[in-house]
Amino acid sequence: MQDVADRAGVSLSTVSYTLTGKRPVSAATRVRIEQAMADLGFRRHPVARALASRRTHVLAIAYPVFGVSLGATLNEIVHGAVDAAREADYDLVLWPVSSDEPELVAELAAQRTADGVLLMEVALDDPRVAAVEQAGVPCALIGRTADPGDRVWVDIDFEQAIEVAVEHLVGLGHRHLGFVNRSQASFDAGYGPVVRAAAAFDAAMTSRGLEPVSTTCDVLPVAGRRATARLLAEHPDLTGFLVMNELALFGVHGALRDAGLRIPDDVSVVGVAITGEISDMYDHPLTYVSTPGPAQGRRAVEGLLELLDGRRHAPGTNLPCALRVRETSGPPPA
Amino acid sequence: MQDVADRAGVSLSTVSYTLTGKRPVSAATRVRIEQAMADLGFRRHPVARALASRRTHVLAIAYPVFGVSLGATLNEIVHGAVDAAREADYDLVLWPVSSDEPELVAELAAQRTADGVLLMEVALDDPRVAAVEQAGVPCALIGRTADPGDRVWVDIDFEQAIEVAVEHLVGLGHRHLGFVNRSQASFDAGYGPVVRAAAAFDAAMTSRGLEPVSTTCDVLPVAGRRATARLLAEHPDLTGFLVMNELALFGVHGALRDAGLRIPDDVSVVGVAITGEISDMYDHPLTYVSTPGPAQGRRAVEGLLELLDGRRHAPGTNLPCALRVRETSGPPPA
DNA sequence: TTGAAAGCGTTACCAA
DNA sequence: TTGGTAACGCTTTCAA
């Protein structure tokens, strides 16, 4: 940077100030400096910058490399986060830690190698939150804890997602719908998405005078197959299925076919909180209610940056999902 | 750190040296210093360390957030890499960049915010390699370029993987095997895994006096379904399938069932270069030839660190795969 | 609008 | 075996 200053005939500090923009610099010298930087192929050194300014200009996202999801969902969030970070001139790195390693997250945060941390797949009582905050690093939650306080959080509006799916099928004429949720274990643990979706489904059905039929299901194709088969056995009149379980989806199809049912002639299937990528993976393009995906990551980053800059941040938000009608839903058989 | 020095009654530099171990420190003072560090809850500041030592102690891995794989395969590699890095006291971060953004990789490397870069899903002519190296940052390849030179690379021994799978099925009595490869586009592009597997399958079959039947197939369940149906139509005598295509696998099953074939009674299915996680996702636990997964990441990191330390590094390696016999393979029908 | 210089928290060189 | 101190490449305060 001294080289740039010399070549532009100014002091080192002026170069720094044209870079940071924290002090007015006359147009003339700015041009000379920029020219000098171009000539010399100058690049700011982030490490030195971080040391001097006590800001790394890096955001980290705890990325669960061993989660149970297919990756597509997480990656959409990451994508949105990356975009938002880049726009704000921040780098976004992923920390490969699974959700049950709060100590690791704590250690990484304590290193102060990132200005803020994004937490994905946040549980109701997530030790990672305290881990990060105790290190004095602000964090944003994708999902939310039981009591998020005035933290930055971005969650999915599961109530709306379920409502939209039910409305779609009921609107097509269905009266008997089954809901395949995620695992019983996560339900028992009070994991937000699972509990809220279960309640939302019951509400959506009963408010329409319909009987809610639902089941939890491990996040595995085989589990989906068994759960669906059981549901069909107990409720042979079911003509529509809501599935909020990426992997189980694949088993659901198998079970329906085993039962001799065609999609969507005999039975409709709607994925809930699914990405387009997953929908494409289905045998026939799956009708689904999409996750807000990128928007979640984006909002989380924006909120986190507001926090960092001391701007007041918007309160937490539940983002809505959008119905995408494709080829697995239609009117019930006559 | 000055605080630690004061409390231990030594100079700042001595504290630094007990930390780095680059200079002998008497046992007595070492103990005092460690005590002082514990008392004060001292933590080294990685940013300052990086600036002074010109080493970040961070390794980055270009993580394709929008790859076509299911994530499980990539994540196994990441896991191995993380472990190896941690053992060597390095941090490993993931850079969320897709493989077709070499400029991004170049920019990140030029920031010199990592001491070395791991590249996954390396193509035969991968611009990322030059991008990283031109920034003066060493890299290791998972997969390999057409001419890896004396770079560090770790690839899968696809020849062995195919051979093992063929041997397994032929050993069970099969004479007519079909191979479902990855996309035609990647074959045409000369992508290593696809080209090598195709050749290996032909070799394994012809060397046994058998006719090799194979097809390329997009990385999608529907594509797998169609490809398998076509293969069956053209070669009704097929009794075994090798599938080196994570997503197509799900479609293969559907096609076989559509044809009224039971697994493994009528037809056997073997996944090639698949992870256990994928195997578990199959309707019945899939017989497969596993990827070396974590070993790939581990070896790549080890090689990269050797490079960084100026130790001579081992040449590139093809890691072998292991056959896992589960429930989708058996003798052909009589 | 600009310059000079004091840090930022380490490492590593030069002496002792 | 230890201490003092100049970097490392920036940001930012204090002066002008």
Kindly describe this structure.
Two copies of one chain form a homodimer. By secondary structure, chain A is α/β, with parallel strands linked by helices. Chain A is 45% helix and 17% strand. The first copy, chain A, is built from 14 helices and twelve strands. The first copy, chain A, has helices at residues 2-8, 12-20, 27-40, 46-53, 72-87, 102-110, 127-134, 158-171, 184-188, 192-206, 221-234, 248-258, 276-281, 294-308; strands spanning 58-63, 91-96, 116-122, 139-143, 152-156, 177-180, 213-215, 240-243, 268-274, 287-290, 317-319, 322-324. In chain A, strands 2-1-3-4-5-11 form a six-stranded parallel sheet, sandwiched between helices. Chain A has a six-stranded mixed sheet with strand order 7-6-8-9-10-12, with helices on both faces. The radius of gyration of chain A is 25 Å and the shape is elongated. The mean pLDDT of chain A is 95. Chain A binds chain B through residues 43, 45-48, 50-51, 56, 58, 60, 63, 65-66, 70-72, 75, 78-79, 82, 91-96, 108, 110-113, 220-222, 225, 247, 250-251, 254, 257, 280-283, and chain B through 43, 45-48, 50-51, 56, 58, 60, 63, 65-66, 70-72, 75, 78-79, 82, 91-96, 108, 110-113, 220-222, 225, 247, 250-251, 254, 257, 280-283. Chain A binds a DNA duplex (16 and 16 nucleotides) through helix 2 and helix 4.
Task: Spell out the key features of this protein.
homodimer, alpha/beta, 6-stranded parallel beta sheet, 6-stranded mixed beta sheet, 12 strands, DNA-binding
Mean pLDDT of chain A, rounded to whole units?
A: 95
Radius of gyration of chain A, taken over Cα atoms and rounded to an integer in Å: 25 Å
Characterize the biggest β-sheet of chain A.
6 strands, parallel
What is the spatial order of strands in the main beta sheet of chain A? Answer: 2-1-3-4-5-11
- Please identify the structural class of chain A as seen in this structure: alpha/beta
Oligomer: homodimer
SSE pattern of chain A: HHHHEHEHEHEEHEHHEHEHEHEHEE
Shape of chain A: elongated
Number of helices of chain A: 14
Largest interface: A-B, 44 and 44 residues
* Beta-strand percent range of chain A: 15-25%
Q: State the distance separating the first and last CA atoms of chain A.
A: 77 Å
Low-confidence stretches of chain A: none
The count of β-strands of chain A is 12
Name the helicity range of chain A. 40-55%
